[in-house]
């Protein structure tokens, strides 16, 4: 009799333990880890857009563990963060910017990796095919529409002949954009004058060398340059050289105009990809997308300080005016 009672107690305890285990598993939140090479408004907006989309799809604070880490502009730190995140075993890891995405792809072949704000995922060797990326990787490209950007600068300066471009020659995104700029600029009779700046601390000196050499400055979506954008703006004011950008967030920081992506929208588009993976799709089966949606911002105050007028044709298309 005692043996039967003991067995009954053991079975009851086992069932209770199993129920607790199942409850704990059911209660475990979805874990989405995000990381970026550096903090600046565009990349931060991507991160925020991802989280907003997740929450709109039912992943509330109670059901979602969402983390973010910045490499502070250091590729070696990006690699360390990637290894750490892989060890944490999240459900999905998002690499915002090319260096962070590359570090993640190198660190895991098992955990789904979604990249965002990557200009050229093919050159960065994140995927070999847009339509069928395969493996554990997919994401969004923010390939810059450089022909439109050059056309915008030409609207401001119809006789433009030389355009200065500060960029980090060690960042694949930037190198790809400069190569495209040269191709498109040649068709328009514009010469691209490069101003290499490997680190954010180099940006001021590199840009100062453009004074007297160019009629305008264009800042690509280069994380190093955007981090130190205020240095470029100062040179533009001092040298009366209008500064343009491929990042709309730069206009509020001093650029005269920018035709670019709304990076919060890019984050939302990235978040939609993450949701598909969380719901069971394999990352490698989801085609890589080129982000959509462009905004035109102008800064009237900076236009005056840099000695250029904003054409009416531009003002008519402007989606945001910064005073």
TrEMBL record:
<keyword id="KW-0732">Signal</keyword>
<dbReference type="Pfam" id="PF04392">
    <property type="entry name" value="ABC_sub_bind"/>
</dbReference>
<protein>
    <submittedName>
        <fullName>ABC transporter substrate-binding protein</fullName>
    </submittedName>
</protein>
<dbReference type="InterPro" id="IPR007487">
    <property type="entry name" value="ABC_transpt-TYRBP-like"/>
</dbReference>
<feature type="signal peptide">
    <location>
        <begin position="1"/>
        <end position="27"/>
    </location>
</feature>
<dbReference type="InterPro" id="IPR028082">
    <property type="entry name" value="Peripla_BP_I"/>
</dbReference>
């Amino acid at each position: 009799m005692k043996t039967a009672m003991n067995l009954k107690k053991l079975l009851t305890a086992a069932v209770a333990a199993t129920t607790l285990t199942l409850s704990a598993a059911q209660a475990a939140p979805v874990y989405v880890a995000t990381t970026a090479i550096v903090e600046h408004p565009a990349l931060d907006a991507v991160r925020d857009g991802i989280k907003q989309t997740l929450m709109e799809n039912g992943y509330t604070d109670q059901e979602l563990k969402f983390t973010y880490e910045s490499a502070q502009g250091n590729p070696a730190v990006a690699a360390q963060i990637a290894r750490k995140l892989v060890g944490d075993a999240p459900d999905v890891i998002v690499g915002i910017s090319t260096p962070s995405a590359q570090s993640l792809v190198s660190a895991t072949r098992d955990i789904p990796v979604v990249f965002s704000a990557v200009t050229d995922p093919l050159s960065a060797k994140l995927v070999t095919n847009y339509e069928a990326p395969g493996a554990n990787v997919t994401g969004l490209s923010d390939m810059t529409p450089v022909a439109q950007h050059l056309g915008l600068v030409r609207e401001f300066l119809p006789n433009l002949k030389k355009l200065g471009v500060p960029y980090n020659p060690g960042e694949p995104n930037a190198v790809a954009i400069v190569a495209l700029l040269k191709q498109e600029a040649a068709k328009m009779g514009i010469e691209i004058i490069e101003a290499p700046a490997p680190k954010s601390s180099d940006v001021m000196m590199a840009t100062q060398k453009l004074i007297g050499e160019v009629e305008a400055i264009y800042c690509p979506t280069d994380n190093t340059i955007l981090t130190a954008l205020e240095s470029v703006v100062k040179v533009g004011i001092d040298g009366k050289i209008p500064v343009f950008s491929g990042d709309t967030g730069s206009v509020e920081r001093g650029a005269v105009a920018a035709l670019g992506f709304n990076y919060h929208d890019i984050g939302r588009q990235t978040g939609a990809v993450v949701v598909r993976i969380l719901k069971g799709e394999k990352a490698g089966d989801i085609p890589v997308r080129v982000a959509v949606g462009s905004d035109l911002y102008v800064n009237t105050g900076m236009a005056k300080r840099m000695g250029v007028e904003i054409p009416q044709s531009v003002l008519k298309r402007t989606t945001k005016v910064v005073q």
